[in-house]
């Protein structure tokens, strides 16, 4: 029997651990860059709310679903670190430590555990439903769990008010979770996992 | 100066890429030819430990690739088919310096080697240029320069001419044959291997011919054309 | 696939230690986003203008740094204009513009090698916790380097889809884009190891 796909071959072969480490590192950087690049797509601003709906959360869910919990969360940390230093990579060209003092900053910080949970729930998932559930739980549940109390604290709202205000994002986020799950499944099928 | 491939198999699951390969590579100019999927690219990656054998061993001088990857990669430079894939730093001089630095050379040695190699490849004037803006030919020179900055004893080329037109392929091949290092070229452009000392033909993961270029190329062409 | 952002030069800005430039950028970004005072803002913009003049970086390169943001900024500007009025809309433009230009000045006047060295020193603080400073520094540099690459591949994929008559909706292009990006970055990783990265 002989190998057909070159890509399958290189990834599934007994490659050096140095290669696996390097691939992991570069993939984290790639998904951090992907989250940044998704910020260049035009956002849909929602009236009243200080948080525009962006495609960046799609990147966060993809990072978790494709890279797994640890590396997915690392990719998000990397992205936020580069933003914190001042590179204007948040949607709308925002960047710098200032972004972490805004009422919406909790949603950004929530991305880190969010990506982790998406990854943890998506490990080994082959059914689309399970992947969607993973993206919904991590990408919406966990992110909101951090974002809403933060917004309430910074913007001087009650938890209930902050929750209601965040409801406006739920439809968009559900759509993104479904897209992330679809894309992650296709990527898993079309490209081998690291160092298998 | 030997690379020893000792009864090596590379497989994943029940798929075998290379099977029971034993080769003793000591010639200065060695060609490896074979069709797509013959395992030649995997064989190239075995030589510097990017791919490790599932069974058997690969030994470069005294270093087993499994246990001494870093030492092996210092001895065996690797030039990839796609120059873009191995240009890792944003500017020309930084990229050439990357390898020597990664191998832990002292800063003044890094600088000296970088300067020497840049001059050797006519890249000195471009040293602060963005690699991204280089022409295809300049990128290839840079890729080779980055490898030679490590001062390797072998240079392995993985399909160095596949992405080039005939004229550029000829130029690239002239540069390769002019190298003082031991050279191992993996290719399916058989005409490029005429002046070589030894040519190995791979088919479905096995050596089917190991001889002089004339004989090996004739065997390859007889089988496939 | 690399993007060179460094512009060679010998200005005072080029010679500043990279760690200082990064810290300065962080402070500047905070100051610009937090200030409500028109005079303070004017002073901050003057500082930026002076830094630009010192750097010797041409106008064309600065505009190139702002270009990817034109559409998104236009959309936000119109939205702010409609919802909050002229003043907040202008504020938003100035703030974002100033941070983008400041970041561009830092990346244009700092060699990647120097940036790496500064980051390595910074991450070295966490070495006792088992953090590999070298890997962290490279991860940061690769992230900055890969952003324009990812954007280019994405744009190409969208253009290719439109050329075949598909709509401008970019989302169906996501999967082939990700697979292509992963393939190319895997090659890059192999290239890194072949040249001595990660001493294993």
Structural account:
The complex is a heterotrimer of chains A (196), B (225) and C (200). With 196 residues, chain A is mainly alpha-helical. Chain A has one domain: Arp2/3 complex 21 kDa subunit ARPC3. In chain A, 68% of the residues lie in helices and 0% in strands. Chain A has helices at 6-12, 17-38, 56-67, 69-85, 105-122, 128-155, 159-167, 170-190. In chain A, helix 2 (17-38) packs across helix 4 (69-85), helix 3 runs parallel beside helix 5 (105-122) and helix 3 (56-67) packs across helix 6 (128-155). Chain B has a single domain (3-224), classed as P-loop containing nucleotide triphosphate hydrolases (Rossmann fold, 3-Layer(aba) Sandwich), CATH 3.40.50.300. Chain B is α/β, with parallel strands linked by helices and 225 residues long. The termini of chain B are far apart. Chain B has helices spanning 40-47, 69-75, 83-86, 92-102, 107-120, 136-148, 166-177, 213-224; strands at 3-12, 15-25, 29-33, 55-60, 63-64, 76-79, 154-158, 182-187, 198-203, 206-211. Chain B has a six-stranded mixed sheet with strand order 6-7-8-3-9-10, with helices on both faces. Chain B has a four-stranded antiparallel sheet with strand order 2-1-4-5, with helices on one face. Chain B contains eight helices and ten strands. Chain C has 200 residues and is mainly alpha-helical. Chain C folds into two domains: 1-110, no CATH class; 125-200, no CATH class. Chain C contains nine helices and no strands. In chain C, helix 2 (18-34) runs antiparallel to helix 6 (86-109), helix 3 packs parallel to helix 6 (86-109) and helix 8 runs antiparallel to helix 9. Chain C is globular and about 55 Å long. The model of chain C has no long low-confidence stretch (mean pLDDT 81). Classes of the chains: A mainly alpha (196), B alpha/beta (225), C mainly alpha (200). Chains in contact: A-B, A-C, B-C.
């Amino acid at each position: 029997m002989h190998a057909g796909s070159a890509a399958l071959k290189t990834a599934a072969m007994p490659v050096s651990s140095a290669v696996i480490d390097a691939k992991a590192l570069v993939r984290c950087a790639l998904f951090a860059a992907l989250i940044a690049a998704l910020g260049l797509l035009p956002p849909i601003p929602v009236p009243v709310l200080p948080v525009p709906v962006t495609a960046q959360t799609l990147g966060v869910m993809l990072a978790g679903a494709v890279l797994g919990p640890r590396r997915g969360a690392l990719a998000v940390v990397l992205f936020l670190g580069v933003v914190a230093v001042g590179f204007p990579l948040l949607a709308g060209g925002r960047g710098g430590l200032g972004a972490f003092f805004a009422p919406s900053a909790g949603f950004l910080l929530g991305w880190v555990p969010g990506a982790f949970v998406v990854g943890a729930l998506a490990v080994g998932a082959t059914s689309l439903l399970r992947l969607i559930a993973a993206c919904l739980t991590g990408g919406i549940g966990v992110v909101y769990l951090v974002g809403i109390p933060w917004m309430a604290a910074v913007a001087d709202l009650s938890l209930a008010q902050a929750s209601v205000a965040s409801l406006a994002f739920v439809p968009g986020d559900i759509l993104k979770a479904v897209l992330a799950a679809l894309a992650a499944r296709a990527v898993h099928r079309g490209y081998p996992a690291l160092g298998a | 100066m030997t690379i020893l491939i000792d009864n090596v198999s590379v497989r994943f699951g029940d798929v075998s890429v290379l099977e029971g390969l034993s080769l003793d590579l000591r010639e200065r100019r060695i060609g490896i030819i074979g069709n797509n999927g013959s395992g030649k690219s995997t064989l190239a990656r075995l030589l510097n430990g990017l791919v490790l054998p599932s069974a058997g061993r690969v030994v470069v001088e005294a270093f087993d690739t499994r246990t001494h990857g870093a030492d092996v990669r210092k001895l065996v430079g690797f030039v990839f088919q796609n120059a873009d894939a191995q240009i890792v730093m944003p500017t020309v001089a930084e990229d050439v310096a990357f390898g020597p630095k990664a191998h832990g050379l002292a800063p003044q040695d890094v600088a000296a080697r970088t300067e020497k190699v840049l001059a050797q490849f006519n890249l000195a004037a471009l040293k602060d240029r963005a690699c991204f803006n280089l022409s295809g030919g300049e990128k290839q020179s840079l890729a080779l320069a980055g490898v030679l900055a490590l001062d390797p004893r072998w240079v392995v080329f993985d399909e160095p001419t596949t992405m080039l037109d005939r004229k550029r392929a000829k130029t690239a091949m002239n540069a390769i044959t002019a190298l003082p290092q031991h050279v191992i070229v993996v290719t399916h452009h058989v005409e490029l291997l005429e002046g070589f000392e030894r040519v190995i033909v791979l088919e479905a993961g096995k050596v089917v011919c190991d001889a002089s270029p004339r004989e090996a190329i004739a065997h390859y062409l007889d089988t496939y054309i | 696939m690399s993007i060179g952002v460094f512009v060679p030069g010998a200005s005072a800005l080029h010679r500043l230690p990279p760690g200082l430039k990064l810290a300065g950028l962080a402070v500047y970004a905070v100051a610009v986003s937090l200030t409500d005072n028109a005079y303070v803002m004017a002073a901050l913009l003057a500082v930026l203008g002076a830094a630009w003049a010192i750097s010797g970086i041409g106008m064309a390169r600065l505009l190139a740094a702002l270009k990817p943001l034109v559409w998104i900024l236009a959309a936000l500007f119109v939205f702010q204009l409609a919802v909050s009025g002229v003043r907040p809309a202008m504020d938003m433009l100035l703030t974002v513009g100033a941070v983008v230009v400041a970041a561009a000045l830092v990346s244009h006047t700092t060699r990647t090698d120097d940036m790496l060295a500064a980051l390595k020193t910074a991450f070295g603080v966490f070495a006792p916790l088992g953090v590999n400073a070298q890997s962290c520094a490279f991860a940061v540099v690769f992230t900055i380097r890969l952003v324009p690459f990812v954007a280019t591949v994405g744009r190409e994929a969208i253009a290719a889809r439109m050329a075949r008559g598909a709509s401008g909706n970019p989302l169906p292009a996501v999967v082939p884009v990700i697979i292509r990006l992963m393939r190319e970055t895997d090659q890059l990783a192999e290239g890194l190891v072949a040249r001595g990265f990660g001493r294993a």
